[in-house]
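Chains adopt folds. We examine one example:
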Amino acid sequence: MAAIAMVAAEPAGDARALGDIGDRAGRLGVEIAGVAGLISDVSAISRQQALQADAAKAAAAEMNAAAAQLGDGMARTRETAADARHVLDDSTTAVSGVVERTGTTMTQLTEGALGIRSTLEDISGTLRGVEKASSAIAQIARETKLLALNASVEAARAGDAGRGFAIIANAVKGLADQIHDFSGQTVTHLAELGVALGDLREQAGANAEAAQQAMQDAELARSATATLSALVESFDRLVADIDALAEPVERSISGFETMQGELSALAEGAATCRQHLDEAEAGTQTILGISEDFMLFLVEAGVETADAPFIALAQSKAQEVAAIFTEAVKRGEITLSDLFDTNYREVPGTNPQQVVTRFTDFTDRVLPAVQEPVLAFDRRIAFCATVDRNGYLPTHNRIYSQPQGDDPVWNAAHCRNRRIFNDRTGLSAGRSTKPFLLQTYRRDMGGGEYVLMKDCSAPIMVNSRHWGGVRVAYRV
């Protein structure tokens, strides 16, 4: 009897051992999923860093080119400034000489103009004296003429005795007439000379003023010459400043070249790291697949695991949905073509993007009655949803089917219906034709928040065609 009891006890011990192996395999899958998620995050960060390194390398190259261009420009500017400095120096010397000679000439001209004006003033005074003398001569001529006339009268009275005196009187009278005529001409000529001297005096005055203005302009020209000299000195300082800046620019060019080399090495390192991470991510996905196949093997072998109730639930719901779809097609409620429609039409103004097909309204009517009760099966269940072969989830649980708002992060967590989840978990759940598929993954809740989940799915067959699958997701 004892031997019999021992033999009977061994299968129970084996069952417990297999159950323990199943539980450990499940936990191993969870750990692998967590590692896969971390590797995926690090890979995404690495890709971003690689992009940033490439961008920094490109920016450094552009800065290096700009610095080199600046250096070339500064060299050309330095040469141009030096040439300009020589030209200005020569021009300043020439201008200074011309201005100096012009100033001396203008000074001489001014002094001459002022001397002419003074001489004209003296001539005017002399002319006035001549006019007075001419008036006096005319007066004497008139008086002499009157005297000769009186002498002629007296000579006539004297008869023959006064004949000689009469001849003298006539001669004196003729001389007085000539003097009177000459005096008149002199007055006329003096008047004309006075007018000409007046005009000449005005012109001389204007010339003197112009000469004085020219002297002032000459002084301004001398000031301008001083300004040119100061400008030459400024160019000297500019050339010196450019020479001083050239050395830092050359150091910057060298530094940019060094930085560009270091950034190139960093970009190459990031690319190598990204390649290794991609390989590691692919490896973890392979291990996850092996873990999922191992769980399928254990369940099919009859091993009872902690996931068994969820597996049975997913299979039951898949059969229920398949029956509803098949019966609806049979009744003509929906055509087989509409049920398998994959023409996903975007819903305008949605973020994240939502889409609809010809079967979306149909699933909105029939699936809630199947999916909603699943949430009460176990408090760990997060959702129950049906997806087609492309990961399209038309009808979600009501708590994840809220109308979208203005916040994309909130929408990502609360508006998950009518969206395509074509990640590894979503596509595998929709395309697997195995009796069930148990996956472990990180669920993106939006806003950088992730939850470690298990996803048990079972296929939906409609008239021997694979439509998709039912997903039952629960927290681990």
